[in-house]
Specification:
Immunoglobulin-like, 9 strands, 5-stranded antiparallel β-sheet, mainly beta, 0% helix, 4-stranded antiparallel β-sheet
Length: 95
Amino acid sequence: MNGDLHFEVILKKEGRHRVYFSDAVRAELPASIASELTITITQYQKVSEILNARIDADGKSWVADGKPVDDVNAVARVAFTAHRRPHWIDLPFGF
């Protein structure tokens, strides 16, 4: 959550990740509420992979495609700009 802006991050070990946005009462917002969304995947003893996400064809979510993730301790940093302010969060990948 970033103020009244909520976001849901779905990380897949196969390498396709999504981010959805909603408002304070959890009503769905268009993906365009945010810009410059990246997901950086960090795995043990590997070079971090920076993924530049794109808005999906329906305009409902951001999608990023990367390499498969096989480290159970991997971390994903989701970064974006919304309401002219940058925001980021580190999330455990979780299997």
